[in-house]
Amino acid sequence: MEAIVGGAVAGKICEMTLQMTVQKLSAQISLVTNFQKDFEWLKRKLGYMKGFLKDAEQQCRQKESVRQWLQDVRDIAVRAEDILERCTAQPLYTSRLQSVFTGNHMGFRYKYSRKISKIKARIKLLIEEGWQLKVANDVSSGEEASSSTLRRAYSKRSSIVPIDSHPVGIEAKVEHLVSLLERPAVSVIAVVGMGGLGKTYLLQHVYSVVKYRFEKSIWLSISQSFSISKLQNDLASHLNIKDKIQGVSEQRAEELINAHLKEKKIVIVLDDVWKPIKEGNLIKRLGLTIGQNCKLVITTRNREVCRNVKAEIYEMERLSEEDSWKLFCIYGFPEDEGNRAPEHLLDVARNIAKECGNLPLAIKTTAASLAGCRSRREWDSKLSQLKEVSTLNKPLEVLKLSYDCLPAHLKACFAYLSFFPEDEKIDCEYLVNLWIAEGFIPDGKDQWDIGWKCLNEIANLCLVEIVEEEWEGSDHDSDIQVELEVKKYCRVHDLFLDLAVYISKENKCAFKIENAFKEFPARNNSVDWCRVLLPKKWIDDKVLLKSRLAFSPKLLRTLSLSDNRIVNIPPKILMNMKVLRVLDLSRNGISTLPDCVEDMKLLKVLNLSSTWITEVPGCVRSLKSLLFLDVSFCSSLRQIPVWIGKLKCLQHINTVQSPLINTLPNGILNLKSLRTLRSRRLRLSVRNDSELKLQDVRSMFQLQELSICLHTESQLQSIKEGILGKLVRMRHLTVENCLPFPDCPFPEELEIMRDLETLQLHKFAVTSSLCSFVDLRELRLQRCHWNSYPEFQKMPNLMSLQLDSNISCTEIPAAFGKSGGFPKLRFMLIRDFPGLDEFPELEDGAMPHLEVFKLHKCHNLSELRGLEKLKMLKEFNYHRSFGLWFRLQEGGQDWREVKARNPQVIITHRHRRYV
Predict the structure, then answer these.
(1) DSSP class per residue in 343-379
(2) 754: Cβ contacts below 8 Å, ≥ 6 apart
């Protein structure tokens, strides 16, 4: 009997166990079969959460309970985004690129189904809590702007146009500071004032006036946390002695700099000094000896900074009401004739200008946020908002009103600026790539254009300043002299950087940190740590390993260790960073990467520029999501590997100034999304099937930047036949003819490249067809010839024209000097025209925006009439143009006429400058 009962019980237990097993198995199977449905649900909810979070801060920041709930929503949104992106990237890691919802992904679907199920439960719980707080309606039913909507808004290609400088109310201040610098008894000048008054802006104008009056002029940005070693290196770079102080102690570097500067007449600007200067702490350690020959100019917010230095204090004052109104109108009514306010907005505009407290930065940003708006209601609303804050005590709150006016898609882009160090010059192109990698720009073929458009909008609102910097250089393996390279950078004012950091901390969408050793959480709870920056701190391998980064935060999106002394990256640092999007190890001594990098399935930006790598590390071949690879300025890099073609998503390859790279493998052809192939001029192969050939290039339809050398007649013939004609998206093209005969005509078939912005040709016969490139901004012609001059002066967007080495040209057409010609030209170089006898007379209105004009090696040119009529000219340089010497030397006839009309222009001859 007991046996029967025991058997029945055992059978019941087996039946229950089997039933539970079946139920669990059914639940697991249900997870897998519902994977696509759950994936789409999570994707939709993430879109809702993002849209809600972008607008929630301003509405709900007063309630602590709501703030905590919002933080929970942000945390779960970060995790959901990582899961969805990993699912989207999974097909890249299979041989057949099968959809994650079908094919051989059973194990992957099971794993991520469980993760999605947990996320779903947390989202539903958050929505219930949100209903109780009366804020969840938007999360459950609201929508953010769709990617397609955003693309339609930016369907037209846009490029950044730097905002014009509008110096208002500083003319007298510039003159006063210049006169102070010229006094023998004054060695140190301190410009003191609160943030946003325009101290740095004023000093930039002063610097441009006085820099040529000294043998050496140097600008150093100090900021709140500076390094003596870093400043010594920056100073040595300006003095061209950086190689002499490499590896030496700070004391020895101080001695070397001091010896180099001894007896030289120099002016040095120390911008944005925060800590009190002690004679032996900063000035002396930089190797400076302040006196009559060495002038020091300081900008600071605190006059106590200079209490240990005998300085002439210049108190920076707010603008007058008249100048405040003038500046407000320039930025608030840019399209109105004379920058005048419409009658129906005049009174409210004047009141808004007054509420800005005569603070230039607040005036510019507030006015720019209203530019183009003619609704009285919106202007009245802005006035009400301004009255709620005080510019005297809370300038940051005034600036935050401009941030609140940003469209939702621009707020994350602006907050990301907090990731960059103070006083950093941010490469605009690199910034756009980072935005794309971080997911701020929607996926699609046009996201690059959208990213530039976003940056342009932020600049137009005066939240950042876009600057174009020019530098001269040459390609040592080529006889082409590159006279001018233009790069775009953006700069962020200290107050706006403070604002970006404030927003980033509050929203947890980005975090700027320069000391991860003290503040990093002791436990591996890294949800708040999306981005870590450790730049320019002279960190080495041992210090890095002891840092709390060794906890390997699992949710880290961006890690920058740039500009340090790291030689070997400890694998422990990177091993758990599985969702990393950006890894910047530039300007370090590393020669390879740890193997654990291959597990970073979502990595999109890898910056290895200025490192000691001899080859692209093999672990990189596993990074199928990679979009941007930078190996520029790597002097030991020997080649780009054949397997590069396996990185199907790669859009940008940068090998500029890596001197051993002059060919590329034909594996590049597999990169169908490649947009930028930035390199030295490539020597395209003829016989080697493993290297890139000219005929291969024509299939790279997305390519927008290319620089090539032609070494055979067959290649030249292919160019004549228009082999590159299918590259319709090209924007930056350089073609060098390395054959001994220069009679190859520029192929008119290339006119199909309607988006071309930069064109450089070497040894071609050019025709008027060049003028059909209406979007062209930079044109460089070297050793090119023409039967009749193309009408360059009619090109509507041309900003830089360089004509180099034409020994047969005896005259330049009169149209070059006519009024209305070259409507946007800013830079012109005419070099090595030995037969040029005469330059056309310049009329009033000719080249209305020309800033830099250079005439080099024009031996027979003896007169340049009308130079004084170039109203915007800042610098005129003539080198080995001896005929101009007597007229343009200081006191000469033409010199007097030019200086009478334009006293600020700098006239230079070789190394002598007449200011």
Answers:
(1) GGGHHHHHHHHHHTTT-HHHHHHHHHHHTT---HHHH
(2) 728, 773, 774, 775
- Which residues are within 8 A (CB) of 888 and not within 5 positions of it... i.e. 6 or more apart? 864, 876, 878, 894, 895, 898, 907, 909, 914
Q: For the chain, how are helix, strand and coil distributed in percent, rounded to 5?
A: 40, 15, 45
If one counts every other C-beta atom within 10 angstroms of the C-beta of residue 125, the result is 12
- What CATH homologous superfamily does 513-680 map to? Ribonuclease Inhibitor (3.80.10.10)
- What is the rounded CA–CA span in Å between residue 186 and residue 290? 10
Q: For tokens 């969805």, name the residue.
A: 84
The two tokens of residue 621 are 């071949």
pLDDT in tens, 641-669: 999 988 988 999 999 888 888 888 888 88
In whole angstroms, give the CA distance from residue 693 to residue 687.
Answer: 9
Among residues 700, 757, 711, the alpha carbon closest in space to that of 734 is found at 757
Alpha-carbon distance of 624 to 650, in angstroms, equals 8
The amino acid at 708 = I
Phi, psi (5° rounding) for residue 243? -65, -25
Sorted by sequence, the CB contacts under 8 Å of residue 914 that are 6+ apart come out as: 888, 889, 890, 895, 906, 907, 908
Which residues, including other chains, have CB under 8 Å from residue 474's CB and lie 6 or more apart?
480, 481, 482
Alpha-carbon span 596 to 603, nearest angstrom: 12
* Residue carrying structure tokens 């947890």: 508
**Cβ neighbourhood burial of 105 (10 Å; 0-12, 13-18, 19+):** buried
481-491 and 426-427 beta bridge pairing: antiparallel
Q: Which two tokens stand for residue 67?
A: 């703030």
Q: Cβ(767)–Cβ(793) under 8 Å? A: no
Helix axes 360-370, 346-355, angle to 10 degrees: 140
CA separation for the pair 768, 788 (Å, rounded) = 8
Which residue carries 């790597």 as its tokens? 634
Residue positions counted in the chain: 915
Query: pLDDT of 90-145, one tens digit each?
Result: 777 776 556 666 666 667 777 777 787 777 777 777 777 777 666 655 444 444 44
Decide if 557 contacts 581 (C-beta within 8 A).
yes
* Distance, CA of 838 to CA of 859 (rounded, Å): 11
State how far the alpha carbon of 672 is from the alpha carbons of 157, 245, 631, 646, 728, in Å: 21, 46, 20, 11, 14
The amino acid present at 366, given as its one-letter code, is T
CA atoms within 13 A on the CB side of 521: 11
- DSSP helix/strand/coil, 176: helix
Q: How many CB atoms lie within 10 A of CB 6?
A: 10
Please provide residue 900's backbone torsions phi and psi, each rounded to the nearest 5 degrees. -70, -40
**Predicted local distance difference test score (pLDDT) of residue 486:** 64
What does the block give as tokens for 540?
């080495």
> Whole-model pTM?
0.74
* Number of other residues whose CB lies within 10 A of the CB of residue 202: 22
Residue 180 to residue 186: CA distance in whole angstroms? 7
For the chain, give every domain's residue range. 1-30, 34-144, 171-315, 321-484, 513-680
Helix (H) or strand (E) holding 490: strand 481-491
Quickly tell me which residue has 């607008």 as its tokens. Answer: 55
pLDDT: which is higher, 146 or 837 = 837
Task: Compute the distance between CA of residue 623 and CA of residue 93 in angstroms, rounded to an integer.
Answer: 9
| Mean pLDDT rounded to a whole number for the chain | 76
Six token digits for residue 216 = 């050496």
Largest CA distance in the chain: 130
Q: What pLDDT digit, counting tens, does each position of 173-195 carry?
A: 888 888 888 787 787 888 887 77
| CATH code that applies to domain 171-315 | 3.40.50.300
> Which is nearest to 366 in space by CA: 461, 454, 457?
461
Dist. CA 210–CA 904, nearest whole Å: 10
